Amino acid sequence: MATNLGFEKPIVELKDKINELRSFTEEKEIDLTDEIKKLEKRLQQLEQDIYGNLQPWERVQIARHNDRPTTLDYIEHLFTDFLEMHGDRLYGDDAAIVGGIAKYKGTPITVIGHQRGKDTKENIHRNFGMPHPEGYRKALRLMKQADKFKRPIICFIDTKGAYPGKAAEERGQSEAIARNLLEMAGLTVPVICIVIGEGGSGGALALGVGNHLHMLENSTYSVISPEGAAALLWKDASLAQKAAETMKITAPDLKELGVIDEVVREVKGGAHRHVKEQAEAIDEVIERSLSVLSHLSEEDLIEQRYQKYKKIGQYSSVTDTMPIN
């Protein structure tokens, strides 16, 4: 059962009222069809008003929802013959990143993604989806294997960020992330990245250098969390909602800024409401991306990836800002 978010309270209350009337109709055999139809029409309008005009902080809440589908959920619905691979051949296996080989509509692919837990026990095992260096090195090992055997790579991004603990730093967290950025830029196979939840900081970027970068409608992608930004900017983490509105971290904002390629529609109320239907929407985007990228040569794939990231942002030279005498 999905947990309801605060802004959904009017919708939940109206649904409860409709269910109450339906039960009353069945038990007392009283015809309340007209009243139920009126409430259902009002519910439809209320859902449109709320879900059609979500604010950035509300999207952050949906992206963090405990029941939001994870990488393994989407692997189950999108791919066949998935074989998970473990370890980085240097230190160990990191459960915060999962990956392996699979088939997508008969085509061999490599799929990699952040993996968080659904309950406390699993979250501890998965380190709350925050990878250590060995997680990123495992991901890179699988990417280079895919490059060798000419398999397209699909990455699912869903992390608050790379684990910032002492052990991770001792094992080379920054180098592992930087290495992934460097190596992904030069891969000779199609790379498709999809933000399915939170895309936080370098921990997300380490799986995010692709030919196409897509985002679910209610996911986020940012250099820092709204709480972290609020603490830095205003010395008050409680102003996270204000920060979320300022940072431009939602899919619609990032699409407008040219950071992402496509916004993947979400089912009404968020991806956690209907995983299978959400997977179908992602399936459409993956199929379109592969159909475009599969026609590019190795050199063209690298060049397309280079140009994609080169054009993000606005640049000016020193001479552009210096006064002319």
What's the layout of helices and strands?
Elements: H1 9-28, H2 33-51, H3 56-63, H4 71-78, E1 80-84, E2 97-104, E3 107-114, H5 120-125, H6 133-148, E4 153-159, H7 166-170, H8 173-185, E5 191-200, H9 201-205, E6 212-216, E7 220-222, H10 226-234, H11 240-247, H12 251-257, E8 262-264, H13 275-293, H14 298-310, H15 318-321
Parallel strand pairs: 3-4, 4-5, 5-6, 5-7, 6-8
Antiparallel strand pairs: 1-2, 2-3
Helix pairs in contact: 1-2, 4-13, 6-8, 10-11
Description:
The chain has helices at 9-28, 33-51, 56-63, 71-78, 120-125, 133-148, 166-170, 173-185, 201-205, 226-234, 240-247, 251-257, 275-293, 298-310, 318-321; strands at 80-84, 97-104, 107-114, 153-159, 191-200, 212-216, 220-222, 262-264. Helix 9 (201-205) links the parallel strand 5 (191-200) and strand 6 (212-216). By secondary structure, it is of the alpha/beta class. Strands 1, 2, 3, 4, 5, 6, 7 and 8 form an eight-stranded mixed β-sheet that branches. The model has no long low-confidence stretch (mean pLDDT 90). It is built from 15 helices and eight strands.
Known CATH architecture of the largest domain: Alpha-Beta Complex
Q: How many DSSP-defined strands?
A: 8
Instruction: Give the C-level CATH assignment of the largest domain.
Output: Alpha Beta
Low-confidence stretches: none
**Count of distinct structural domains:** 2
Q: In the CATH scheme, what's the topology name of the largest domain?
A: 2-enoyl-CoA Hydratase, Chain A, domain 1
Any idea what the radius of gyration is? Answer: 22 Å
Please report the distance between the alpha carbons of the first and last residues.
Answer: 69 Å
CATH superfamily of the largest domain: 2-enoyl-CoA Hydratase, Chain A, domain 1
Structural class, by secondary structure, is: alpha/beta
Shape: globular
The number of helical segments is: 15
What do the pLDDT scores average to? 90
Order of helices and strands: HHHHEEEHHEHHEHEEHHHEHHH
Strand content: 15-25%
Largest sheet: 8 strands, mixed
Q: Helix share of residues?
A: 40-55%
